[in-house]
C-alpha cells in the first residue's frame, strides 16, 4: 500500500507516519525543506520517540520524499497511491490543491477503472477534507469531476496527538506524546475500503471533532493565551500556575456544558475526558512552547474555530460563557512579533479598533451580546498586560 503525505512537519512525521507505517504503508512525504527531503530519500527511515520515562523509540520505515515544487513527480506519486494525507495547516490547503488535481487527473487518465483513492486532510478544524475537495474540484474538468466522484473520496477526520516543536541534532527525529487518537468519518469512505490500524471509523464525526477541538484545542489555546499574558514561555509552566489552570478549567467547563447538551454526552465521562486532556498539557518529558500553541490567532479566532464557535453555541443555548469571553479577550491581546497573524491582528486592532476586529475577524456583529462583553474584557486584559508586562515579553521566541 502506498501513501502520499503532504508536510514532513511535526504531525506528519510524528503521528501520520508511524500510524500508516504500522499498517504497512510505504510513505512518500511531499515536503519543502531540502534537508529533510534528502535525508528521507537517503535513509528511508526515521526515529519517533515517545515523551515518557523510558523514551521508547520506534523506526518508521519505508519512507521517501519528493519536493513539493516538482509537480510532475508529486502528481505521479498521487496517481500510484492508495491514500493521500495532509498536515500542513488548514490555511495552506489552497497551496496544494493544484498538485492534488494534477495527480487525480493523471490517475484517471491511466486506466478506466482506477483503484479507490482516499484524500484526508489531517488538520485541526472542522471539515478539512471537504474543504480541500472544494479547492481541488474547480481545477478538474467536469468529466473528471464526475469520475472522481466515483473513485476518489475526501472523508473528514479528527486527529489528536501533541507534537511540539522539535530540537534534535537529527532533523528527522521527532518526539511525541504517547497519547494519540485518529477518527475518520466512515460514510465519507469508498465502499470496501481497507482499514488503517489504530484508526476508528465512525458514523457521525461531529461529536468527535467538536469534543476534541473544543476541549483539547480550546483548553490548549486558553492555557497559551492566559499564560502569555502572565509572561510564561511554555504550556507546562503556565498550567502549573493554579490561577491559569482554574481559568482553563473554567473555559472547559463551559465548552463541556455546551458539548454535553449538544451531543448528549455523559457528563461524568466528559468531566473525566477534560481532566485527562488537562493532564496531557502537563507532560514533563517535552517542552511545548506557548508561541506554538497560540500560533495563528486569526485562525483560532475565526468564527468556526475553537474559541468563537463554542462561545456562540453556548450563548445560544443560554449557558455560561464568562471564561470563554476571557479566553477570546486574551487571544486578542496576543502580540508575538514573530507570528505573522499576531502582527496582522494587532495592526488591525490599532488601525480599525477592537469593535471592527470582533465584527469582521470573529464574525460577531455589534448587535450580539457577546460583542460588547468581549470588547470590555479585552480592554481589561489589555490594560493589565501592558501595565504588568516587561518590554522583552513582546519579543519572546
Ligand atoms: N503538532 C500538533 O500537536 C498537531 C496535532 C494535531 C493536528 N495538528 C495539525 O497538523 C497540521 C500541521 O501541524 P504541525 O504541528 O505538524 O506543523 P509543522 O509546522 O510542524 O508542519 C507543517 C508542515 O507543512 C509544511 N507547509 C506549511 N505550509 C505549506 C504550504 N503552503 N504548502 C506546502 N507545505 C506547507 C511545512 O513545511 C511543514 O513541514 C496543522 O493543521 C495542525 O493544526 C498538529
Ligand atoms: O495546531 P494548531 O495551531 O491548530 O493548535 C495548536 C495545538 O493546540 C495543537 O497543535 C495540539 O497540539 C493538537 O491539536 C493536539 O492534538
TrEMBL record:
Q: What's its EC?
A: 1.1.1.17
- The UniProt record gives the binding positions of NAD(+) as 3-14
Listed InterPro entries: 6-PGluconate_DH-like_C_sf, 6PGD_dom2, Mannitol_1_phos_5_DH, Mannitol_DH, Mannitol_DH_C, Mannitol_DH_CS, Mannitol_DH_N, NAD(P)-bd_dom_sf
Keyword match Zinc-finger: no
Domain Mannitol dehydrogenase N-terminal, residue spans: 1-196
Q: Which SUPFAM superfamilies match?
A: 6-phosphogluconate dehydrogenase C-terminal domain-like, NAD(P)-binding Rossmann-fold domains
One example of the protein's molecular function in GO is: mannitol-1-phosphate 5-dehydrogenase activity
Q: Give an example GO biological process.
A: mannitol catabolic process
Q: Which GO terms describe its cellular component?
A: cytosol
Domain Mannitol dehydrogenase C-terminal, residue spans:
205-371
Catalytic activity reads: D-mannitol 1-phosphate + NAD(+) = beta-D-fructose 6-phosphate + NADH + H(+)
Keyword set includes NAD: yes
Q: Which UniProt keywords apply?
A: NAD, Oxidoreductase
Database matches in PANTHER family: ALTRONATE OXIDOREDUCTASE-RELATED, MANNITOL-1-PHOSPHATE 5-DEHYDROGENASE
Family per similarity comment: Belongs to the mannitol dehydrogenase family.
Q: What name is this protein filed under?
A: Mannitol-1-phosphate 5-dehydrogenase
Q: Which organism is it from?
A: Paenibacillus rhizophilus
Amino acid at each position: 500500500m502506498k501513501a502520499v503525505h503532504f508536510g514532513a512537519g511535526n504531525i506528519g512525521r510524528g503521528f501520520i507516519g508511524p500510524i500508516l507505517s504500522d499498517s504497512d504503508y510505504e510513505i512518500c512525504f511531499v515536503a519543502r525543506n531540502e534537508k529533510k527531503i534528502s535525508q528521507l530519500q537517503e535513509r528511508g527511515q526515521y526515529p519517533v520517540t515517545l515523551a515518557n520515562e523510558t523514551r521508547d523509540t520506534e523506526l518508521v520505515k519505508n519512507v521517501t520524499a519528493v519536493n513539493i515544487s516538482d509537480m510532475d513527480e508529486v502528481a505521479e506519486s498521487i496517481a500510484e497511491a492508495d491514500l493521500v494525507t495532509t498536515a500542513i495547516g488548514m490555511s495552506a490547503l489552497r497551496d496544494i490543491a493544484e498538485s492534488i488535481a494534477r495527480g487525480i487527473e493523471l490517475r484517471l487518465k491511466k486506466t478506466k477503472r482506477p483503484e479507490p483513492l482516499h484524500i484526508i486532510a489531517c488538520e485541526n478544524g472542522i471539515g478539512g477534507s471537504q474543504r480541500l475537495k472544494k479547492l481541488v474540484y474547480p481545477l478538474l474538468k467536469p468529466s473528471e469531476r464526475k469520475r472522481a466522484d466515483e473513485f476518489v473520496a475526501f472523508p473528514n477526520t479528527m486527529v489528536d496527538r501533541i507534537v511540539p516543536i522539535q530540537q534534535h541534532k537529527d532533523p528527522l527525529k521527532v518526539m511525541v506524546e504517547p497519547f494519540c487518537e485518529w477518527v475518520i468519518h466512515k460514510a465519507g469512505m469508498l465502499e470496501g475500503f481497507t482499514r488503517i490500524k489504530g484508526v476508528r471509523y465512525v458514523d457521525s464525526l461531529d461529536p468527535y471533532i467538536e469534543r476534541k477541538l473544543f476541549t483539547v484545542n480550546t483548553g490548549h489555546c486558553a492555557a497559551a493565551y492566559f499564560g502569555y499574558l502572565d509572561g510564561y514561555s511554555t504550556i507546562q509552566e503556565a498550567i502549573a500556575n493554579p490561577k491559569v489552570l482554574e481559568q482553563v478549567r473554567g473555559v472547559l467547563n463551559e465548552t463541556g456544558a455546551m458539548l454535553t447538551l449538544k451531543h448528549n454526552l455523559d457528563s461524568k465521562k466528559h468531566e473525566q475526558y477534560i481532566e485527562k486532556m488537562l493532564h496531557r498539557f502537563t507532560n514533563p518529558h517535552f517542552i511545548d512552547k506557548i508561541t506554538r500553541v497560540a500560533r495563528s490567532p486569526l485562525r483560532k479566532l475565526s468564527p468556526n474555530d475553537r474559541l468563537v464557535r463554542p462561545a456562540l453555541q453556548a450563548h445560544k443555548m443560554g449557558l455560561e460563557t464568562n471564561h470563554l469571553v476571557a479566553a477570546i479577550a486574551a487571544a486578542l491581546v496576543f502580540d508575538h512579533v514573530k507570528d505573522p497573524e499576531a502582527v496582522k491582528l494587532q495592526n488591525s486592532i490599532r488601525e480599525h479598533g477592537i469593535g471592527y476586529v470582533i465584527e469582521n475577524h470573529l464574525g460577531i456583529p455589534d448587535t450580539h451580546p457577546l460583542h460588547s462583553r468581549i470588547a470590555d474584557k479585552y480592554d481589561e486584559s489589555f490594560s493589565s498586560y501592558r501595565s504588568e508586562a516587561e518590554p522583552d515579553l513582546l519579543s519572546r521566541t
